[in-house]
Amino acid sequence: MKRMDRYVLGEMAPPFIAGVMLIVVMLIGNTLFPLIEKIVKYGIPFKVIAKLVVFNIPTLIVLTLPAGTALSASWAVNRLARDSEITVIRMSGVSLRRLFMPIFIVGLLASITAFVVADRVVPRAQHEFQTTQNQMVGYALQSSPSIAANKVFTFDDYAFHIREIQKDPSGDPNKLRLLGVTIFQNPTNGAFPTITTAQSATYNRDIWELQKVVVHHLAKDGSERFEVQAGTAALNLRVPLIDIASTAIQHPDELSMEQLGQRMRALKSTGQDGNQDFREIAVNYYMKLSLPFVCLAFALCAPPLALRFARTGAYTGIFLSLVMVWVGWNTLLLAKFLGLGGALNPILAAWAPDILFTVIGLYLLWRIE
Q1: In this structure, are residues 11 and 86 in contact, taking their beta carbons and an 8 Å threshold?
Q2: Is the pLDDT of residue 302 over 70?
Q3: Which site in 101, 106, 212, 228 is 20 to 30 Å from 126, CA atoms measured?
Q4: Crossing angle of helices 46-82/101-116, nearest 10°?
Q5: 3-class SS at 2?
């Protein structure tokens, strides 16, 4: 490695490390602040909160590496340009492409690191993160008689709507009292589901004790064919407690790129490649690869952009990196929503920020050279 490369890398290292650490700390606060009320209200131990923070850090690192790359690249080029060092280096016969090569390599290494962390570490960490959130639900069960209202969820061939979920009067954390229960049992022949309603129910380790039960059997046209009433009924649906009590939504990062690919191929093989489920899985699948490589796109765009505005002030590099991150994040969100809605191809939706900043960076580099 030449002295010039080491010099450029030395300029990048402090803002890169400081930027990543600072943004991670800010995002940790963003994770904790919405939970402060529950922490105080339910007396959740510090150990549970610490686990929640630690297992969320891999996800935050994947999100902050692009910002750290943009900040360090803009800062280094801005500083070198303001002190006329880039002018001296170019006068010695070094092209901008060669001068910026260490920045491009840092962007590539950051992208590879982010991809490995996102695909190998994040799914396991997110699983533990969700498990820790479930522990917080357990503390809520012990501290509040009313847990949730209008809970809707699915499990196997059943769909459920529960008007209100309460802690069982016995105090057993494995038991729940349910009010206004509606259970939809989906048939295998494509007909309308069988609907079971109950005024109340007791959930006890997978066993549902229903009170004042009415079972509605529907005809092929959706009208009620007949109904069966009963004072009580017992069902063994094997629905986990956390599926009933928790309101947490599964995060896409809980699945690896391989697992998302398997689901996508399974839907495609059954002719479901045009529905909403396929689009959601496909967008998340391609984003597993495209999001980490935003680091490389920022590394290509930040140096020529910072060089172009270097003379405007000492903090221009910081401002430009913040603008890049803001534009990149909002482009990513917009493209993702368009992809989920079917307005954009999933591949284009996932790779839109990478394409945008790569094209801008290569164009600016060509113009400045």
Answers
A1: no
A2: yes
A3: 106
A4: 170
A5: coil
Query: Lowest-pLDDT range, 90-104, 159-173, 242-256, 325-339?
Result: 242-256
Amino acid found at 45? P
DSSP 160: E
Task: Decide: 85 and 30 in contact? Cβ < 8 Å.
Answer: no
| CA–CA gap between residue 211 and residue 201 (Å, rounded) | 6
Q: Give dist(CA 24, CA 336) in Å, integer.
A: 23
Cβ(234)–Cβ(208) below 8 Å: yes
The CA distance from 48 to 71, in Å, is 33
Q: Which residue has the tokens 């259970």?
A: 183
- Say how far residue 334 (Cα) sits from the centre of its chain: 15
What are the contacts of 328-331 at 24+ separation with CB within 8 A?
328/66, 328/70, 328/294, 328/297, 328/298, 328/353, 328/356, 328/357, 331/356
Phi then psi dihedrals of residue 226, to 5 deg? -165, 165
Which residue type sits at 322? L
Name the pLDDT band for 35 (thresholds 50, 70, 90).
confident
Confidence of residue 247 (pLDDT cuts 50, 70, 90): very low
- Where does residue 305 rank: exposed (0-12), middle (13-18), buried (19+ CB within 10 A)? buried
Residue 114 host element (H or E)? helix 101-116
User: Whose CA is closest to 245, among 142, 92, 336, 138?
Assistant: 138
Spatial distance between the Cα atoms of 181 and 254, rounded to a whole number of angstroms: 30
* Secondary structure (3-state) at 189: coil
Name the pLDDT band for 251 (thresholds 50, 70, 90).
Answer: low
Tokens of 241: 């407690």
pLDDT in tens, 113-139: 999 999 989 988 988 887 787 677 666
State the average pLDDT over residues 43-72.
90
Hey, what are 140's tokens?
């809520």
Query: Which pTM does this prediction carry?
Result: 0.70
Residue 358: the pLDDT is: 95
129/131 Cα distance (integer angstroms): 5
